[in-house]
Amino acid sequence: YADEYFYDKNSMPVLLLNITLKDGRSGAGTGFIISDSGLALTCAHVVKDTTKVTARLTIKGRFGGDHTYHNCKVLKINEELDMALIQLEGIHFPTLKLTSYDYKVKRGEDIALIGYPLATQTNETYTNFEGKIASNEHHDKAGEVYFINSEAKQGNSGSPVILKDTGEVIGILCGSVLGNNKDLQEEINYIRPIKYF
Q: What is the pLDDT of residue 175?
């Protein structure tokens, strides 16, 4: 029951993002709301070069239907960090709590990843994966990254990485490092700590 409550509560601010690119192609990803006024976070590679971004918010059992759709404005993109801030139309949104700026991500912490892998409009509900922080911090030209031993797939980009014991967001899933043959069987998923937001 505790796990069911954890995921039902923390999935509400998690968004299925549907995008239209400048070249006419469509795509999808994940984001999550951090303020009741509709500010949300996702990855830069999800929303860059877009002409339209629509967020689907899902709250089970809500009067009028589980899903609502909100147009989004891309406010800021940082491609080096692969992070983006977007604004949903509307007010009074559910939110996820972020860890403090000085929180130090630790190897072995139990985490949950909530999002929309292989995302399409037909995803009726979120998918949750569990795992741990698998490494101490690594650095690239933009700053800290951490590897996780949790499964994630295309469409999970922008998913919140949530501490199982507190329900606070410690990072955002940015992508995977693939094996030499680009085989997804050899993927290692990595996150950016939330302090960069």
A: 82
Going by pLDDT thresholds of 50, 70 and 90, the confidence category of residue 112 is: very high
Of 100, 130, 126, the C-alpha closest to 113 is: 130
* Distances in whole angstroms, Cα of residue 1 to Cα of each of 4, 5, 127: 5, 6, 17
CB under 8 Å to 140, separation ≥6 — which residues? none
* Rounded Cα gap, residues 59 and 53, in angstroms: 20
Count of helix runs (H) and strand runs (E) in the chain: 2, 13
Integer Cα distance of 11 and 42 in angstroms: 15
Between CA 85 and CA 67 the distance in angstroms is 22
Identity of the residue numbered 43: C
Tell me the pTM: 0.91
Residue type (1 letter), 5: Y
Q: Which two tokens stand for residue 151?
A: 């499964």
- pLDDT on residue 179: 56
Q: Are 189 and 175 in contact (CB under 8 A)?
A: yes
φ and ψ of 79, to 5 deg = -70, -30
* CA dist., res. 54 & res. 19, Å (int): 6
Strands (E), the chain: 14-21, 26-33, 39-42, 50-58, 67-78, 83-88, 110-115, 127-132, 138-140, 143-148, 160-163, 169-177, 188-193
